[in-house]
Amino acid sequence: MSETWSGGCQCGAVRYRFSHKPKGAHICHCRMCQKAFGGFYAPLVGGPRDSFAVTRGAIAIFQSSDKAERGFCRDCGTPLTFGYGDGDWMSVAIGSLDDPEAFPPIDQHGVESRLSWVNHLGALPDRPATEVENAENATFIASTNHQHPDHDTDCWPDPAVGLGQSEINAVGLGQSNTTK
User: Fold this and answer.
1) Cα(4)–Cα(175) distance, integer angstroms
2) What DSSP character marks residue 71?
3) Residue 135 in 3-state DSSP?
4) Averaged over 158-165, what is the pLDDT?
5) Which of 82, 74, 105 is closest to 10 using CA atoms?
6) H or E element that contains 133
7) Cβ distance 64 to 70 under 8 Å?
8) What is the C-alpha to C-alpha distance for residues 120 and 132, in angstroms, rounded to an integer?
9) How far apart are alpha carbons 162 and 83 in whole angstroms?
């Protein structure tokens, strides 16, 4: 069996797979990537477009410029992909891969927009693990976790759990879904 590299969104509605190990892991500091990821930078890795396939759901696309397309999950909002519409390369968010540890960034792009304090983040003091600092909250989160696991599943959400997308959406909006 050939090795594949899978990933997907937080809610599990979208899953994807590379047939070849992605390469060129980097972080991009450009302002478009900051906005698209809602973060200080975008961690990306990619491969030939023909080695990339969506295996569940559909990736929603936002065309952030006349060339660039940014893919995300329409249900949970997870940033997933970056590519040029006419290009032959597909990049994915490193954190959306099932094994993000396998893709340490090797360089930085868009440094003209890098926030002045980002290079010092590694020097910040570490806080204790949530399980140590707030065990009660960590236990509650673990017992009510609706996040898709870091591996492919035959279906999601798990029918044994009984939480459907409308319940996930209602919970995410701070609403209850009492009408079934």
Assistant:
1) 39
2) E
3) helix
4) 57
5) 74
6) helix 130-133
7) yes
8) 25
9) 36
What whole-number distance in Å separates Cα of residue 146 and Cα of residue 73? 15
Q: Which tokens hold the place of 36?
A: 């698209």
- Name 14's bridge partners: none
Query: What is the 8-class DSSP label of residue 120?
Result: G
Residue 101 is encoded by which pair of tokens? 């540890």
Token digits for 110?
């868009």
For residues 32 and 113, what is the distance between their CA atoms, to the nearest angstrom?
A: 10
Q: Six-digit token pair at 125?
A: 């003091």
Do the beta carbons of residue 97 and residue 14 sit within 8 Å? no
**At residue 135, does pLDDT exceed 50?**
yes
Residue 177 has what pLDDT?
36
Separation between Cα atoms, residue 111 and residue 28, nearest integer Å: 7
